[in-house]
């Protein structure tokens, strides 16, 4: 874990619009892997942004 990921941060609530099948699929992954939905979505977004900005 990088130092910036261990710093305490204030959380904010956001609303998103998803296809009707997405919430169930999204919820299954964190349940099966012992993480929270928020943690999973945060990591997925970070990974997508890293891939998008990779050379």
Please specify the SSE layout and strand pairing.
Elements: H1 3-6, H2 22-33, H3 37-53
Contiguous runs where pLDDT drops below 50 for at least 5 residues: none
Q: Count every helix, treating DSSP H or I runs of 4 or more residues as helices.
A: 3
Largest sheet: none
The dominant shape is globular
The string of secondary-structure elements, in order, is HHH
Report how far apart the termini are. Answer: 22 Å
Q: How many distinct beta strands?
A: 0
Q: Measured on Cα atoms, how large is the radius of gyration? A: 13 Å
Estimated helix fraction:
55-70%
- Could you tell me the mean pLDDT? 88
SS-based class: mainly alpha
Beta-strand residue percentage? under 5%
Task: Give a concise summary.
With 55 residues, the chain is mainly α. It contains 3 helices and no strands. The radius of gyration is 13 Å and the shape is globular.
């Amino acid at each position: 874990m990088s130092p910036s990921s261990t710093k305490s941060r204030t959380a904010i609530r956001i609303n998103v619009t998803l296809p009707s099948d997405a919430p169930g699929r999204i919820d299954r992954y964190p349940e099966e892997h012992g993480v929270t939905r928020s943690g999973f979505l945060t990591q997925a977004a970070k990974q997508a942004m890293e891939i998008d900005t990779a050379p």
